[in-house]
Amino acid sequence: MGGGNQSAVSEFVLMGLCHSWNTRILLFVIFLVLYLIIVPGNIVIVTLIVTDPHLHSPMYFLLANLSFVDMWLSSITTPKMIVDFLRENKTISFNGCMSQVFLAQLIAALEMVLLVVMAYDRYVAICKPLHYFTIMSLQRCIGLVVTAWTIGFVHALSQVVVIAQLPFCGPREVDSFFCDRPLVVKLACVDRYNIENFMCINCGFVAITSFVMLLISYTHILTTVCKSSKTGASKALSTCSAHITVVVLFFGPCIFLYVWPLSITWMDKFLAMFYSVFTPLLNPAIYTLRNKEMKNAMKRFGNYRIDCKRNT
């Protein structure tokens, strides 16, 4: 990625979350356990949706994609962060840093668009139930997911192409546990005003457009729900509340990290950690513990495993 870059910096130093050895050991154990929950948890959701015929619907197809993306969201930064807790020299190569920037921006934009698609799915299911399976056909769902990946890829590529060409000739310390895009740009030996404005507008356009579309979708949903029967309204609100919770958990840190103009180091680190670790951790819990069909699918899967063991 750095082929055209005349940078004198071949690697960056990640400052990490803290310097105390005892605190780092504690954090190593905590985040290792969390990561070992995140990956299997999201794999379980994807496996259940793929294997259980009761979950072969547009909503769960999109949920499987969200879980797959969440698994990668955490895997971009968390494994290196865990290893770096045990290292004094927390370096990352220039290309490795650019890869982190690219993948982080890709997954962030992808998940934003995917959440919009999921909101649209709920809008069609609640506001146009008679046409739901016609509108949300498998082909339409695949097309929407491909569109989300395309938007994420174009957004990330537009960012990393600019950053990779910047001259890095002086400081190389990134005050975070990963190559966070705004912090990497600050290390460039050029006037950063126009570049930072471009990055802010680029990220802000994706984030704010997605957020506005989500607000429009859920406003229509809530308006329709208020006019429906109590039973239908209760079921619809139960499903949408899980979606809205995930949206808030994801968009909150993203907006403060990449759109909000003020920067407070400890808060940025906390929000980045929350975004990359706790959001992928909470999503499986929210969608499984609050979803009756997912809980039934887990029971069926458990009973199937027990029957298999008995037969062998």
Write the layout of secondary structure elements.
Blueprint: E1 11-14, H1 21-51, H2 58-84, E2 91-93, H3 94-127, H4 132-135, H5 138-164, E3 173-174, H6 181-185, H7 193-227, H8 230-258, H9 265-289, H10 292-311
What is this entry, summarized?
The chain has about 300 residues and is an all-alpha fold.
Question: Any overview of this molecule?
Answer:
Helix content is 76%, strand content 3%. The model is unreliable at 1-6 (pLDDT under 50). The chain has helices at residues 21-51, 58-84, 94-127, 132-135, 138-164, 181-185, 193-227, 230-258, 265-289, 292-311; strands spanning 11-14, 91-93, 173-174. It has a three-stranded mixed beta sheet. It is globular and about 65 Å long. The chain is mainly α and 312 residues long. The protein is built from ten helices and three strands. The N and C termini lie far apart (52 Å).
Question: Which key terms come to mind for this protein?
Answer:
3-stranded mixed β-sheet; membrane; globular; olfactory receptor activity; sensory transduction; 312 residues; mainly alpha
Q: What share of the residues does DSSP label as strand, in percent?
A: under 5%
Residue runs with pLDDT of under 50 for 5 or more positions: 1-6
H/E topology pattern: EHHEHHHEHHHHH
Total E-strand runs: 3
How does the major sheet shape up? 3 strands, mixed
The helix/strand class is mainly alpha
Mean pLDDT rating: 84
Widest sheet: strand ordering = 2-1-3
The Cα radius of gyration reads 21 Å
Shape: globular
Q: How many DSSP H or I helices?
A: 10
Proportion in helices? over 70%
End-to-end separation in angstroms reads: 52 Å
Pfam family, one: 7tm_4
InterPro entries: GPCR_Rhodpsn, GPCR_Rhodpsn_7TM, Olfact_rcpt, Olfactory_Receptors
Main location: membrane
Subcellular location: Cell membrane
